[in-house]
Design brief:
Strand order of the largest sheet: 1-2
Largest sheet: 2 strands, antiparallel
Number of domains: 1
CATH superfamily: Farnesyl Diphosphate Synthase
Structural class: mainly alpha
Helix content: over 70%
Shape: globular
Strand content: under 5%
CATH class: Mainly Alpha
């Protein structure tokens, strides 16, 4: 791993530990410290810092703003976990499981307030632009989550509808993370847009990869319940394509699994994965992941600079493609 990436990771963790969200009631603020302390890939703050490093060397000066993006991301996770009734996050109990639903809602709310507080120290000439971009992104994330919930009761979801949902729910925040770093560094609008598009497209690829890993990852590495999407009949890219391609007995078997009210979880995961394998769904998903990563790299190629920062950003993004957890 490049030494700059390691250094940036250390700065991110140090800044997270430094953040003071509040003291009392302890039950309101402790869940925030708990969730932020669970670790994770820290992908979004890393992208902010890597984008900044394309233009300026003093990356440590913007770590606070990079961590604000991570705090917003964790706010969305805290609330998403409630909606998804998820038992685990990064291999540990989710906040609503460890405390309760009401506490998780309120702790998430105060996290969002703190994100704005963290951003308020941005230089005044950049603050309005950053807040406008952040607000647009945050609204889109909520739109994506709403679509995701509505898809649960929708009998059919098309591939295009699904790709738009994950663009909103997941990918636009990666795009904003890069855009934020570029704005903070004083980049022009064209380069900010190219970085945002790069982040959005790799974000779609990242979520498609997550769909694949949810079904096929090593449970020891994944940190979440493997097969959780299958158990809950979540309309992922894999299920959508399987429903499109399945015929005859396979289609009936898949529909039986989806309709079953009582079932052995292990048997359902194995049964549905067997159908996916027969239909070559994992291969289709891999191709779609590759398509979006390639699209992202074409946007990145629009940047005029060819320095160490760009090479580092490319290297970091390429590692996302190969991730197994």
């Amino acid at each position: 791993m490049p030494s700059s990436i390691t250094r940036y990771q250390q700065w991110i963790e140090q800044e997270i530990k430094k953040q003071h969200y509040g003291k009392t009631p302890v039950s309101l603020y402790e869940p925030i410290r708990y969730l932020m302390g669970l670790g994770g890939k820290r992908l979004r703050p890393m992208l902010t810092m890597l984008a900044y490093s394309l233009y300026k060397p003093d990356v440590k000066n913007i770590v606070r703003y990079a961590v604000a993006v991570e705090a917003f991301h964790n706010f969305t996770l805290m609330h998403d976990d409630i909606m998804d009734k998820a038992p685990l996050r990064r291999g540990k109990a989710t906040v609503h499981k460890k405390w309760n639903v009401n506490t998780a809602i309120l702790s998430g709310d105060v996290m969002l307030v703190k994100v704005y507080e963290m951003l308020l120290s941005v230089e005044s000439d950049k603050l309005k632009r950053i807040l406008k971009a952040f607000n647009a992104c945050a609204a889109e994330v909520c739109e994506g989550q709403q679509w995701d919930m509505e898809f649960e009761s929708k009998p059919t979801v098309s591939e295009d509808q699904y790709l738009n949902m994950i663009r909103l729910k997941t990918a636009v925040l990666l795009g904003f993370s890069l855009e934020l770093g570029a704005i903070l560094a004083g980049a022009n609008e064209k380069e900010c847009r190219a970085l945002r598009q790069f982040g959005t497209n790799i974000g779609i690829g990242f979520q498609l990869k997550d769909d694949l890993l949810d079904a096929y990852a090593d449970p020891k590495k994944f940190g979440k319940q493997v097969g959780g999407d299958i158990i809950s009949n979540k309309k992922t890219f894999l299920l959508i394509k399987a429903l499109e391609k399945a015929t005859g007995k396979q289609k009936k078997l898949l529909q039986d699994w989806l309709a079953a009210k009582k079932f052995n979880k292990t048997e359902k995961v194995s049964g549905v994965k067997a159908i996916y394998d027969t239909l070559a769904i994992p291969s289709l998903a891999e191709k779609k992941v590759d398509q979006y990563f390639r699209k992202g790299f074409r946007s990145l190629a629009q940047l005029s600079r060819a320095n160490d920062g760009k090479a580092l950003l490319v290297s970091f993004a390429e590692r996302l493609i190969e991730r197994q957890s």
